[in-house]
Amino acid sequence: MTPQHPHLAPRILLIEDDQVRIDQFTRWLQDTEFVLVTARSGGQALGVLRKGAKGLAAVMLDHDLSDSLLTSTDALLSASDLIPVIQRNVPRYIPVLIHSHNASKPVVMQRALESTGFTVTRVRFATIAREPELFRKWLTQIRDAWEPIE
Fold first, then answer.
1. pTM for this prediction
2. Domains along the chain?
3. How far apart are CA 69 and CA 25, in angstroms?
């Protein structure tokens, strides 16, 4: 049986609870080959990550996910809690962008991911918004690392 789609479009998982940021990332990815998959809470992100990384080309994550609490468990989860799941379920060649404004936690997240072989870029969202070429440069890194699934 021949698959309908010989190649799965590269997906970028965005773990973000702020609608303004989600909308901005959506605009930046418009007219690219990437499909944006958004997890608005820690619980949603856990579900997506536990299903596996098939077709995943990159992960973008915020640290504080308290703006979109969908379940009582979400109140207990931040992106720091997702790091072990990313380490277990995401291949090391997949780039990670941490775009949080949290002052201290993103550094710890970056070190944890890099210590297990991930390439991590850490840039505050406000900086990316002021200098969108930083995001375009990161997308180039994704294209270079992308391994299409046949």
1. 0.84
2. 11-145 (3.40.50.2300)
3. 21
